[in-house]
Recover the amino acids of this structure.
């Protein structure tokens, strides 16, 4: 069991470090994409409302 | 007063707070409708989802109790983390419950229940979720404040005389509430991303430093000396099987129904993205228990009983206050602040979302609210939750055991909601009688256990039963109530129909 926990601990640190690095980069692009989509969605919402009013 | 917290550390913390406020407020302009506010317009992609889920599910309270597990149980204390990893992997790969939930296009779990069990069950489920969730969260703020003070080398009891802890945590809550109220899920996601990176880096640096300065062997020897083989194998602990079984049920219930976790699935771009978020984040839950657990074990290996004092919950922060050098202390405090702020903001929005979407649903049906009014009401609800946390969690002194309290509030909600969700998705005979029975039984049993525990006449009997057996019974009884209630209604309706026809 001691070897098991040593292996889990080592894997944990290596995996967590890699994930932080990878998610740190890819997550930034996800935010950009999300904000772009929401911006166009909001524009659509307002233009539909203006069309309805006119 | 022994402290490694200097002006350099304060500068690091200040810079982090400023960055969070700017990021949180910058995205508020993208909120146009309720769906943007509560589930980020369902535009969240995989990596942002991973960062958000990890940051939300790791707060200072988590760090404190997982470290306490490490201190009191050794490596075996990380078992719930491994079980949660298994639960997330199984649910992520199979899509069990989360696939029908995301496909339904709902914003909360009770909204799905209404389609199957009717509006009463939706409302009742909303009340139970909010009650359990808010009471659970009520203790986060004070525990977080105590951790920060102890780690920085201050004595919380001395601070209590001058109310500095309350003032410090009030300022922190105001910052969190400010960007959550204005930006909703969008601000939560963006700040979660930032907080995930800072929190993860600080946790990794501290853990690597423990490995370099203390080493692996002293940690293993400390666990062997204090806990023996049970410190490595949970089945050898006292009530080991009960501990593992209860945690297996608990972790599956958390993965399926904990609203803060599920909200990430509901905000995901697609069902496939939601499933991938679960699969890719699954191992984080082992790290979530093991890394602070190692900090707790390091405290066990290095501190004397006099240094630890009477409360094992404080062992880890006391160890960190001595162990962490200047400069790194600032990064650690910023990291833990990040962990706490991301949890607080996500939880405030989560419970606020259930209040708006489910508890207020009957009022919306009479007259449709505009999107602007909906966003405004959501902001008002989140602000009210902030006020509740401030007065209940910070200025109201908690009496009794913190973990009994967390256990009750968690089980009341998780046992019944997991039964309801499984039945709703996969049992065609499930109906409102069974659902109401499951909610009531799931709530009554754990509360009953704690009442028995508090009464002098029955406390010994309750002690004999133990928290794990009572927890397991709560899941079992909730399931039985669902089956009996549903069958009872089915046959009553059948008999009535047969009576009318004859």
């Amino acid at each position: 069991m001691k070897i098991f926990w040593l292996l889990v601990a080592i894997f944990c640190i290596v995996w967590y470090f890699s994930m932080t690095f990878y998610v740190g980069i890819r997550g930034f692009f996800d935010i950009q994409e999300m904000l772009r989509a929401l911006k166009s969605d909001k524009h659509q919402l307002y233009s539909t409302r203006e069309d309805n009013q006119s | 007063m022994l402290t490694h917290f200097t002006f350099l550390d304060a500068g690091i913390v200040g810079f982090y707070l400023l960055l969070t406020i700017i990021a949180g407020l910058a995205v508020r302009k993208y909120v146009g409708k309720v769906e943007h506010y509560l589930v980020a317009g369902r535009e969240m992609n995989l990596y942002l989802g991973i960062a958000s889920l990890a940051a939300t599910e790791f707060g200072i309270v988590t760090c404190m109790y997982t470290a306490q597990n490490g201190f009191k149980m050794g490596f075996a204390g990380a078992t719930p983390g491994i079980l949660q990893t298994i639960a997330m992997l199984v649910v992520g790969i199979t899509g069990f419950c989360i696939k029908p939930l995301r496909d339904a296009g709902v914003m909360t779990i009770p909204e799905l229940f209404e389609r199957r069990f009717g509006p009463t069950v939706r409302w009742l489920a909303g009340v139970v979720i909010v009650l359990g969730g808010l009471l659970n969260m009520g203790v986060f703020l004070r525990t977080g404040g105590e951790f920060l003070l102890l780690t920085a080398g201050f004595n919380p009891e001395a601070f209590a005389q001058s109310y500095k802890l309350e003032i410090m945590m009030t300022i922190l809550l105001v910052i969190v509430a400010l960007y959550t109220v204005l930006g909703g899920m969008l601000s939560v996601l963006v700040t979660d991303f930032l907080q995930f990176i800072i929190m993860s880096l600080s946790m990794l640096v501290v853990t690597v430093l423990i490995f370099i300065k203390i080493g692996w062997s002293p940690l293993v020897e400390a666990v062997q000396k204090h806990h023996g083989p049970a410190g490595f194998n949970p089945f050898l602990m006292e009530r080991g099987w009960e501990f593992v079984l209860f945690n297996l049920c608990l972790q599956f219930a958390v993965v399926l129904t904990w609203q803060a976790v599920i909200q990430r699935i509901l905000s995901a771009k697609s069902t496939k993205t939601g499933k991938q978020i679960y699969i890719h984040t699954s191992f984080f839950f082992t790290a979530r228990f093991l890394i602070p657990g190692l900090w707790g074990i390091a405290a066990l290996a290095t501190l004397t009983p006099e240094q630890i004092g009477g409360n094992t919950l404080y062992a880890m922060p006391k160890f960190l206050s001595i162990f962490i050098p200047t400069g790194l202390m600032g990064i650690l405090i910023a990291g833990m602040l990040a962990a706490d702020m991301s949890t607080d903001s996500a939880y405030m929005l989560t419970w606020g979302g259930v209040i708006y979407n489910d508890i207020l649903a009957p009022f919306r049906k009479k007259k449709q609210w505009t999107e602007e009014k909906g966003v405004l009401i959501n902001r008002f609800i989140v602000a009210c939750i902030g006020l509740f946390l401030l007065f209940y969690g910070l200025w109201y002194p908690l009496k009794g055991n913190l973990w009994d309290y967390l256990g009750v509030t968690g089980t009341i909600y998780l046992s019944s909601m997991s039964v309801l969700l499984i039945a709703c998705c996969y049992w065609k005979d499930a109906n409102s009688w069974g659902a109401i029975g499951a909610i009531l039984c799931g709530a009554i049993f754990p509360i009953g256990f704690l009442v028995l525990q508090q009464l002098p006449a029955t406390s010994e009997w309750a002690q004999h039963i133990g928290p794990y057996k009572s927890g397991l019974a709560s899941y079992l009884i909730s399931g039985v109530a669902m089956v009996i209630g549903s069958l009872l209604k089915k046959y009553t309706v059948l008999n009535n129909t047969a009576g009318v026809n004859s």
